[in-house]
Specification:
The chain has a single domain, classed as Aminopeptidase (3-Layer(aba) Sandwich), CATH 3.40.630. The N and C termini lie far apart (about 40 Å). Helices cover about 25% and strands about 35% of the residues. A hairpin with a 2-residue loop joins strand 9 and strand 10. The strands form two sheets. Strands 2-3-4-7-8-1-9-10-11 form a nine-stranded mixed beta sheet, with helices on one face. It has a three-stranded mixed beta sheet with strand order 5-6-12, with no helix packed on it. By secondary structure, it is of the alpha+beta class. It is built from five helices and twelve strands. Keywords: Membrane, Transmembrane, Transmembrane helix.
Length: about 230
């Protein structure tokens, strides 16, 4: 156990490890508290593909409309409906007609479905991407890069050159993957939740927020780095 904790500290840092273990403790003993911490990152979009031309040719990317039932993205139906009602777009990846993954994005604002907060984009040349999902059997294949390349081209055609997103501070693999692709940190937020109560501490405005019901939530105005 001690070696596992040391490994987590190496991957996540001391504070994130403490938060992660606290959340695990709450879940393990069914204590009605949850801890979430997100990093907000910005990724520059480029027309040049990350995937070599010879790879991913048998993977097709197409828009998944809201009328598709059942939706192939493995999320609760209420969450799927809410995403489309907010104006989100879902791009699906299909390998020889088999669903392999999807990429969600929105170009204005997005109400988070895991905690109670709202993300707003300050720049018209930015999009918010979230829930890039790849079916487990395809996670060692080119599906992720194919999704990213096609989504990037699709967004650039709309005049969008930055994609912002949030990643869990407890997911070392996702953090590493984003950094390898050139993502830049633009802020972070930590949420402590129980029932309808939520305490938010963040590195960006509003910095500190306390809510006692679902109608009260922090609004984060996000923008890409200036450099």
């Amino acid at each position: 156990m001690l070696q596992k904790i040391k490994g987590l500290i190496r991957e996540l840092g001391f504070l994130n490890t403490i938060l992660h273990l606290t959340n695990y403790f709450f879940l393990r003993f069914k204590i009605p508290f949850r801890v979430f911490k997100y990093y907000f990152v910005a990724q520059r979009l480029y027309e040049k593909s990350l995937l070599p031309d010879r790879r991913g040719r048998n993977i097709g990317i197409s828009d998944i409309p809201s009328k598709v039932k059942p939706h192939p993205c493995p999320r609760p139906n209420a969450v799927i409906i809410d995403r489309y009602q907010q104006g989100a777009v879902c791009l699906g990846a299909y390998k020889e007609h088999e669903f392999a993954g999807c990429f969600w994005y929105i170009t204005d604002k997005y109400k988070e479905d895991e905690v109670n907060c709202l993300y707003k984009l300050a720049n018209i040349d930015s999009a918010w991407d979230f829930d890039v999902y790849v079916v487990p059997k395809f996670r060692m294949s080119p599906v992720f890069l194919k999704l990213w390349d096609d989504a990037s081209k699709h967004l650039i055609e709309q005049g969008i050159h930055w994609s912002l997103s949030r990643i869990s501070a407890f997911n070392a693999r996702s953090i590493s993957s984003h950094l390898r692709m050139g993502a830049q940190l633009v802020g972070w937020a930590c949420f402590i939740c129980t029932g309808s109560f939520q305490l938010t501490i963040a590195s960006i405005f509003p910095f500190l927020h306390i809510s006692f019901n679902k109608s009260s939530y922090p609004v984060f105005i996000l923008m890409p780095p200036k450099n």
